[in-house]
């Protein structure tokens, strides 16, 4: 049986999408990954797509998804990327959630989005290492 890892943020257009892409690239056997949001955007942030393309990860086919009770209940571990909008913060609906408090790339220049991307990659790699221990 595979273990599902869930990455969540409000719009599912930036941080959680990057985390999903990094986890897919580096995940150990026996895992699945999904990202979702409480108020998903209609598309992934184009600056996020550009930042990920720069390091060889193509996310053009990823689309924002709405978090559901089924996704939550099937997840082994949930990671909240950080919330500004407390009312729609996914962490309110999750139990046993990691909260990474990563800044939202929305509206930020590519230089800052690259820093956010690198921070997410580092956190994802640490998370994967924790499963191998």
From TrEMBL:
Coiled-coil residue spans: none
Keywords linked to the UniProt accession: Arsenical resistance
GO biological process: response to arsenic-containing substance
SUPFAM superfamilies named in the record: Phosphotyrosine protein phosphatases I (SSF52788)
InterPro entries linked to this entry: Ptyr_pPase, Ptyr_pPase_sf
Domain Phosphotyrosine protein phosphatase I, chain residue ranges per copy: 3-130
Domain of life: Archaea
A family per Pfam: LMWPc
Protein name: Protein tyrosine phosphatase
Annotated organism of origin: Nitrosarchaeum koreense MY1
